[in-house]
Amino acid sequence: MQQKSSQSRGVLYDKTVPLNKSEKHLINSAHLLLIASRACSSQNKARFFLGGWCVWVCVCVWKMRLFVGLYQLSSLLYLVALAGCEEDYTEDEEMILSLIRQVDSRPVLESGSSAQFLRCTKDAWRIPGQYIVVVRNGTRDNQVERTARRLRVNAARRGYLISILRTYSGAFHGFLVQMSSDVLHMAVKLPHVEYIEEDSSIFAQGSPWNLERITERGGSFPNDGSEVGVYIMDTTIQANHRELAQRVMVTDFNSVPEEDGVRVHRQASQCDSHGTHTAGVVSGRDSGVAPGASVNSVRVLNCQGKVIPKYRRDTLSVFAGLEYIRASLQVQPISPVIVLLPFAGGFSRTLNAACREMVRSGAVLIAAAGNYQDDACLYSPASEPEVITVGASNAADQPLTVGTMGTNVGRCVDLFAPGDDIVSASGDCPTCFTAKSGTSQAAAHVAGIAAVLLKENPTARSVEVLHLLRHHAAQQVMNPEALPLEHRLTTPNMVAVVFKSPSARAGEALLCRSVWSKRSGVMSFDTAAAHCLHGEEMFSCSSYSPDGVWAGERIEGRDDQKECVAHNGVGGQGVYAVARCCMDDRVQCQSFASAHMGTEAKCPSPQHQLTGKNCGWAPSARRQLPRAGEVTGATSHASCCQITSSLECRGNEYQASGFMEQVEVSCEDSWTLTGCSGASQGSAPHGAYARGNTCIVRPSRGERGVAAVAICCRGKDSGSWVET
Q1: d(Cα 367, Cα 351) in Å, to the nearest integer?
Q2: Within its chain, how far is the Cα of 110 from the centroid?
Q3: Active-site position among 180, 348, 424, 440
């Protein structure tokens, strides 16, 4: 007789070898001993199990003789052991024992034909080892129970244990059973069975709110992110999950620090949890923004979700992960490539510099803003301007707040994306899903949208991706009152969405954004400076003072070294500089000062277009900004862009007849706001800044007749895009 290994799903012998009656006696003896041992206490079980199996092995050696006598001896041993046990058999176990004793005198009855076996057409949704047995119409409830018990008997005779999970007698008659697939051939031959169906997962067919939100304004699913590589620096990723199957490459970079404390247990589901979820949001088959995008797992978080310490003499650092990606791209270039950084740490100049170099080497880096309800500029890599930093919003398009935690905000955030109660792949099992919240999930949404964009525009630079993300985002949907007062003006009020036309290129129209500086000091003539990114052109410069005490602003430096510098006034409580940064390789801009104090600056030649204007006051000058051509006590500066293509600009002005809390003027469709300034007959306004395609000027308290001046530009071949 050939015996299988004990690892073969509990099978004690090869069922393909025919057994004679003596061999059946032997197997039944073994089953009696096994079942009896299950009911014994731990002390009696060991003694009984060893003695009983010794007898059974002796039988094997004794060339299969005296079977009936030994069978009786086995039964006697079983009864003796049972008498010494502290537990009793259940009713089902007693029935099984009774039926097994009768196996030679009464053969098992099986139906003449086999029942039908059904299986889910989606392999990834199947639940192997769990089956629904459906009996024929008209079968009584007691026959259902009898069928289930007979299946247990037949399985037990062949060394299998099964579990009846539930019986049904309403919409259909049958039962749910957990068993090995090797028992199926017995189950389909049971009397009264009409068919057996393998269990499978079912899913709600309404799209998750986050996917609806990013597509409800013109986008559609499915989105194609294929041919775009996404490196995810996170925990490990469960590569065999149904959402990610055949799209995840687990790299050989897997250096992580030990967890804090000695009691931490590295369960696979815990170590996979965060990374699997973010990967599912990026490219999950059903829960992902860009199904088809390939994912490369670079593990830099341990099972507690901690990033490797940044500064160590060995290779265990987040820098090593970035260097690994850089080296991998040199050996096997992937273009375009996105690097997702779903983590946050304290501000690190070194980490920011490493991320900046990755961007300038051609990668698009997308980072989580952080979950501390704080200024994102205090954290890295969120504070690096070259990195696209994403805050989290909820289903109401408001900043995410969960208990004492919530999304970071401020000028270092580039845009928001869904991050509340996001359903995606779970590391618990290959078909499991779970919901998580945070800026990691928000950043994963933007990574997926960027993959869709880069699929259509593979040569787009990181700064182009940023402008297109902001341009297509839903504008002014968040309630400003939900933001901290000190960050209401500097936090971008926009939520990412999938593009209507992802093939649109930044080069086809003029796209601009406002870049705010941090607030200056409160000393007289302290300065604040705002900078554009590499690849952007500074079209204008303005400033804003919350208390209305400021001393003007101007553009300083040349080429990539330009900065918008704002000056705090005497007794002022600080000032912001606001640079207007635009994506257009066709123009070069420069600032020109007026020839004399009190006169208006102009562009030097017809080959230049005025894109913005601003004023700088002398320390003792009265801050007035007349609407006419004179600027009393101030030096005027004009931002002029040399025309290398068909760029045209014009000014729009609106003057309030009385007092208004703020004065606004906008550019028309197809025109982009490039400059924003204010004019006043009396005291200087608090300053001017752009919000969307609108120029906003806030008058000083009680000031009347304040005017807002917008300079609007476009290329003659531009479509209907507006700036962000």
Answers
A1: 12
A2: 53
A3: 440
Tokens 């600027």 locate to 631
| Catalytic choice (29, 31, 192, 234) | 234
Q: Is 392 helix (H, G, I), strand (E, B) or coil?
A: strand
Using CA atoms, how far residue 528 sits from 13, 551, 612, 687, in Å, is: 82, 12, 19, 14
Place of tokens 């308290």: 701
234 is catalytic: yes
Secondary structure element (H or E) that encloses residue 159, with its range: none
Looking at residue 337, its amino acid is: V
Return the closest-CA partner of residue 52 out of 71, 74, 36, 82: 74
DSSP for 641-710?
A: EEESSSEEEEEEEEE-SS--S-EEEEPPTT-EEEEEEEEBSSS--SEEEEETTEEEEEPPTT--S-EEEE
Residues in the chain: 724
Per-residue pLDDT tens digits for 393-409: 999 999 999 888 999 99
Q: What would the two tokens of residue 689 be?
A: 């800044």
Lookup: tokens for 519:
């607030």
Residue among 670, 649, 652, 674 nearest 722 (CA): 670
The answer to whether the beta carbons of residues 448 and 289 sit under 8 Å apart is: yes
Q: Could you give the CA distance from residue 572 to residue 543 in angstroms, rounded to a whole number?
A: 13
Read off the pLDDT of residues 286-309 as tens digits, 9 standing for 90 and up: 899 999 899 998 888 877 655 544
Mean pLDDT of 224-239: 85
- Please tell me the distance from the alpha carbon of residue 235 to that of residue 425, in angstroms, as a whole number: 14
Answer for the pair 125, 200: CB distance below 8 angstroms, yes or no.
yes
Q: CB within 8 A of 228, min separation 6: which ones?
A: 290, 293, 294, 336, 337, 338, 451, 454, 455, 458
DSSP assignments along 312-372, one per residue: -SSS-SHHHHHHHHHHHHHHS--SSEEEEE---EE--HHHHHHHHHHHHTT-EEEEE--SB
**440 counts as catalytic:** yes
List pLDDT tens digits, range 120-157: 887 777 888 999 999 998 888 889 999 999 999 999 99
Is the distance from CB of 554 to CB of 540 less than 8 angstroms? no
- State which amino acid sits at residue 330: Q
Closest by alpha carbon to 519, among 489, 540, 493, 492?
A: 489
CA 368 to chain centre: 10
Backbone angles phi, psi at 91, to 5 degrees: -60, -40
* Pick from 524, 570, 518, 513: nearest CA to 543: 518
Phi, psi of 67 (to 5 degrees): -65, -50
Give, as one character, the DSSP assignment of residue 108.
P
Strands 494-495 and 647-655, how do they pair?
unpaired
- 17: confidence class by pLDDT, cuts 50, 70, 90: very low
The residue annotated as part of the active site, out of 192, 241, 274, 472, is 274
Between the two ends of the chain, the Cα-to-Cα distance in Å is 79
How many whole angstroms separate alpha carbon 282 and alpha carbon 296? 12
- Gap between the Cα atoms of 540 and 530, Å rounded: 11
3-state secondary structure of 480: helix
The packing angle between helices 91-101 and 141-157, to 10°, is 60
